């Protein structure tokens, strides 16, 4: 590779010491430099006539003249850049040197001489730029006429602005573009300004295109101009300076005007359409993902996709679609995406995606191919979150299942009630037999307790099936929990300890015992599930004398009356809950347990039961520190509770008269008849309503009480039978028996009807008291329900 040519300098300096300093400066500079040293202008001219250096370095004052003489004398242009040096700075001389054509003016000093190589390089670059600019000016002038002729033939308008003479030329197209005839009006700068839209004039004036410096790239503006019809049209103006004065000020500019009205209108329409489409894309509820085909690399996503996948846009762009699909689902999805891309077929399928937190989200995917300009193909996939739909479907299935279970429970409980009624009546008859030894009496007591427990279970089944209303009665919460402990310990297993220490003071509430038991069991089971590794559940009961105003959203009454409330507290050592979980805790079907391990109904049912008892539930919980559920129920007066409890312990009530007993269940009918006869009543038996009417026709004169089941075979109900017989005997006492009150018409239990309802299953005491109360209601001696 050949070496570059050396830099050739002509040094004109009569001071040998200064000349030596110049030599030294270039000797240490990079590159090869050849310096031809002369001491006078005369010598310099001889050298310039023989050869042309790359640059001249000249002292200002020389023995035979001045360095400026090289530029100003006839034929003095040396054809290369000149740097003038002087020992003493003079501003006037500096200006004169530069105006004469020198490229640089230096005051000699150790610094400037040492920096001389860099100065030379800079001046050479400026010289090259100046040469190029001059060449361009020449070429522009040569082509001006050619350009003018070409523009006249084109659809663009041509203008030529002489800033020095303040005159403007418009080609014919400039006029016709605005609807005018060529040269229709005198063309002045003022008239042109008036044609510009008032709202655009300041912007056009601020642009000051005529201030473009020498060699500038010109300008481009868009503004409106008035047409001959009075409207306005958008014009695209471009211009470029073509002549400057010696100070670099623009003397002349040429340019074009283009009618861009249609283009802007189309662009605006396109922008509005694009904006609407972008808004639809970004604000869509469904996740939308755009991917290149066939690479399946994501190129665009909307906000819903970011939310669904739990990742930001920057994390999604460029990723492969398969990264967000489980491996077991991608095989199918990948084939469908490929099919959509190759064949242009729209696909619709259900699959899953994996979010950043590793949750698998069920989605419905609709994908189609889109062709873009340039032949690019992309796939647009719309992902619809099926979580809510699946949740609703699960709720529907669960509700249907619960309805079916409820109907089954009601039917089973009805049959159990008849069996239990027979057992309880027989136990009552046995207890009335004074010949039984004492040890048998204690056995009967155990049997009665077991049958009452069985009766409670059937009543809970009926409550579960919503076929029996709540039965409120004075209840000692401490006793209720103590009686449940054995069952609770079986429920939670050996890994969970249950602690409950009743206090000396009893805490009475007016409650449905079965329902409150269900609340306790649900919450203890919930506490157990929160401690998969085992732990301790603590139960306590206390009395709160005053309850502060509650927030309407926490389940409390919005305006609680200052009163006493019994508080049941269930505390566990489990995993605890965050605030989001606590907010949804009592929603039906909401559960944090694994699929198949929770219905989401336990706490929702507890909440409904407590609300039915005019109470509320408060929850305190922290993640990792366990939970505490406090159930508040209104305190009930223990004196009244004791009195009512004493009533239940009264013995069977005897009487006289004749009872027409109508019951289709043979066992219940047989033992009910035996129980009534054992206390003094005469009994006529019938298996259904039609049979009862036959008995009535023969025994009407001596029948005092009608004791009938509500629902019986042959289509005649107990209420219809009672209504018909009372038309014949107005003072007929009536007792209606049933396992649940929903079988009775709404008006049946109206006090004006003077009848008694007897809940199945019942024992001898309840049976005889119901008959006595029915007789007393007719005679006006009492009004107890007997139920």
| Discrete helix count | 24
CATH superfamily of the largest domain: Histidine kinase-like ATPase, C-terminal domain
Fraction in helix: 40-55%
Q: What gap, in angstroms, lies between the N and C termini? A: 121 Å
The biggest sheet, with number of strands, parallel, antiparallel or mixed sense and barrel status, is: 5 strands, parallel
CATH C-level name of the largest domain: Alpha Beta
Number of domains: 5
- Alpha-beta classification: alpha/beta
Instruction: Kindly state the number of beta strands.
Output: 29
The CATH topology assignment of the largest domain is: Heat Shock Protein 90
User: Radius of gyration, rounded?
Assistant: 54 Å
Q: Note the overall shape.
A: elongated
**Spatial strand sequence of the major β-sheet:** 2-1-3-6-7
Overall pLDDT metric: 83
State the oligomer: single chain
CATH architecture label name of the largest domain: 2-Layer Sandwich
């Amino acid at each position: 590779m050949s070496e570059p040519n050396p830099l050739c300098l002509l040094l004109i300096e009569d001071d040998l010491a200064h000349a030596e300093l110049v030599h030294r400066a270039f000797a240490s500079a990079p590159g090869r430099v050849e310096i031809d040293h002369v001491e006078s202008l005369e010598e310099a001219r001889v050298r310039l006539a023989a050869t042309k250096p790359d640059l001249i370095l000249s002292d200002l004052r020389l023995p035979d003249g001045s360095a400026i003489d090289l530029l100003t004398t006839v034929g003095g242009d040396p054809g290369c850049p000149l740097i003038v040096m002087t020992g003493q700075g003079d501003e006037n001389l500096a200006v004169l040197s530069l105006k004469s054509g020198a490229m640089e003016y230096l005051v000699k000093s150790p610094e400037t001489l040492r920096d001389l190589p860099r100065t030379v390089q800079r001046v050479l670059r400026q010289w090259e730029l100046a040469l190029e600019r001059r060449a361009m000016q020449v070429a522009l002038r040569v082509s001006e006429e050619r350009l003018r002729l070409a523009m006249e033939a084109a659809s663009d308008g041509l203008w030529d602005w002489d800033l020095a003479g303040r005159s403007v030329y418009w080609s014919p197209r400039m006029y016709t573009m605005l609807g005018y005839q060529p040269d229709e009006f005198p063309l002045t700068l003022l008239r042109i300004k008036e044609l510009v839209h008032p709202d655009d004039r300041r912007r056009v004036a601020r642009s000051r295109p005529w201030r473009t410096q020498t060699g500038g790239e010109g300008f481009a503006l868009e503004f409106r101009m008035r047409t001959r019809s009075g409207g306005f049209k958008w014009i695209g103006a471009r211009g470029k300076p073509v002549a400057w004065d010696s100070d670099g000020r623009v003397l002349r500019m040429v340019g074009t005007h283009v009618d861009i009205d249609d283009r802007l209108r189309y662009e605006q329409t396109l922008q509005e359409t694009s904006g609407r489409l972008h808004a639809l894309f970004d604000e869509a509820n469904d996740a939308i993902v755009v991917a290149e085909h066939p690479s399946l690399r994501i190129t665009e996503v909307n906000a819903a996709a970011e939310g669904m996948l739990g990742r930001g846009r920057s994390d999604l762009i460029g990723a492969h679609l398969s990264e967000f699909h489980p491996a077991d689902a991608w095989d199918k999805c990948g084939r469908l995406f490929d099919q959509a891309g190759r064949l242009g077929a729209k696909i619709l399928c259900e699959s899953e995606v994996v979010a950043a937190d590793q949750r698998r989200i069920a989605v419905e995917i609709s994908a189609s191919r889109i062709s873009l300009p340039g032949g690019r193909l992309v796939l647009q996939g719309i992902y619809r979150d099926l979580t809510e739909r699946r949740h609703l479907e699960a709720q529907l299935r669960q509700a249907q299942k619960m309805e079916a279970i409820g109907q089954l429970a009601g039917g089973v409980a009805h049959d159990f009630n008849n069996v239990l009624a027979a057992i309880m009546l027989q136990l009552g008859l046995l207890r009335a037999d004074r010949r039984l030894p004492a040890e048998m009496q204690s056995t009967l007591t155990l049997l009665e307790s077991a049958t009452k427990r069985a009766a409670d279970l059937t009543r809970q089944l009926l409550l579960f099936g919503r076929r029996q209303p709540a039965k409120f009665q004075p209840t000692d919460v401490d006793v209720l929990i103590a009686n449940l402990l054995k069952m609770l310990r079986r429920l939670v297993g050996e890994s969970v300890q249950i602690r409950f220490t009743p206090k000396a003071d009893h805490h009475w509430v007016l409650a449905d015992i079965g329902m409150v038991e269900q609340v306790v069991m649900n919450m203890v089971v919930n506490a157990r599930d929160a401690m998969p590794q085992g732990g301790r559940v603590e139960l306590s009961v206390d009395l709160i004398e005053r309850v502060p105003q509650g927030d309407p959203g926490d389940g409390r009454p919005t305006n609680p009356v200052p009163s006493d409330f019994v508080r049941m507290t269930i505390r566990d050592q489990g995993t605890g809950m965050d605030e989001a979980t606590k907010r949804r805790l009592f929603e039906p079907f909401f559960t944090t347990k694994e699929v198949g391990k929770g219905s989401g109904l336990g706490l929702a049912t507890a909440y409904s039961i407590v609300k039915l008892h005019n109470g509320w539930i408060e929850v305190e919980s922290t993640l990792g520190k366990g939970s505490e559920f406090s159930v508040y129920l209104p305190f009930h007066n223990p004196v009244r509770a004791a009195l009512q409890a004493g009533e239940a312990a009264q013995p069977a009530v005897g009487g006289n008269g004749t009872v027409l007993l109508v019951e289709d269940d043979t066992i219940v009918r047989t033992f009910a008849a035996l129980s009534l006869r054992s206390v003094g009543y005469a009994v006529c038996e019938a298996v259904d309503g039609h049979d009862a009417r036959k008995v009535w026709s023969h025994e009407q004169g001596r029948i005092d009480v009608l004791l009938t089941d509500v629902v019986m075979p042959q289509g005649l109900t107990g209420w219809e039978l009672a209504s018909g017989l009372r038309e014949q005997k107005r003072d007929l006492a009536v007792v209606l028996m049933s396992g649940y009150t929903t079988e009775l018409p709404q008006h049946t239990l109206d006090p004006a009807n003077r009848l008694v309802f007897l809940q199945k299953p019942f024992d001898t005491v309840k049976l005889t008291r119901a008959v006595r109360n029915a007789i007393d209601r007719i005679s006006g001696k009492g009004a107890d329900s007997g139920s």
